[in-house]
Write a structure and sequence with these properties.
There is one protein chain. By secondary structure, this protein is α+β, with helices and mostly antiparallel strands. The chain is built from six helices and four strands, in the order H-H-H-H-E-H-E-E-H-E. The chain has a four-stranded antiparallel β-sheet, covered by helices on one side. The longest helix has 13 residues.
């Protein structure tokens, strides 16, 4: 899909102001409402816009511990990796799971009520025969930067 400057502007604005009205968005990019909204729908259909939502500050709702975990599996067969990935998708505590190349197979971001809950979760995974060979735990003591934004300017190469 080729993007033009209007598409890029739409993405930049929606990423920062997801609740902007159709009219305000159209005015911001200097288009009329109908063509602007058609562009938004096209970006959604193409999967570039995945959805809309509020960013919730979890620390305000409840104090939790953030844990980063590196995991290596015993086996690298498709079925072993699929079994592990399904377990991570099903876990409410795993908020990010990345398959990685290099020294470890997966990197997780886990939110728990505390270290005790995290260790019970890890013990459960080890008992569940998910094929975990080894894991390394890193307790987050302070978040320096957290964002869900992507750099839209990099999409300039996709301009039509």
């Amino acid at each position: 899909m080729r993007l033009d400057r209007y598409d890029i502007q739409i993405l930049q604005i929606l990423q920062q102001q997801g609740r902007i009205t159709k009219t305000d968005l159209a005015q911001a990019i200097n288009l009329s409402v109908s063509p602007c909204w058609e562009r938004v729908k096209r970006l959604e259909k193409a999967g570039i816009i995945e959805g809309y939502g509020a960013r919730i500050n979890g620390q305000v709702l409840s104090k939790h511990t953030t844990v980063l975990v590196e995991i290596s599996l015993n086996s690298h067969s498709a079925s072993s990796m699929q079994r592990f990935e399904q377990a991570m998708l099903a876990s409410e505590h795993v908020v990010d799971c990345y398959a990685t190349g290099g020294g470890v197979d997966y990197v997780l971001r886990v939110l728990c009520d505390g270290i005790d809950q995290y260790q019970r979760l890890m013990d459960h995974w080890l008992d569940s025969e998910l094929g975990i060979d080894k894991y390394f735990t890193y307790i987050v003591t302070k978040t320096i930067k957290h964002t869900t934004s992507v750099t839209i300017q990099d999409a300039q190469g996709l301009l039509s």
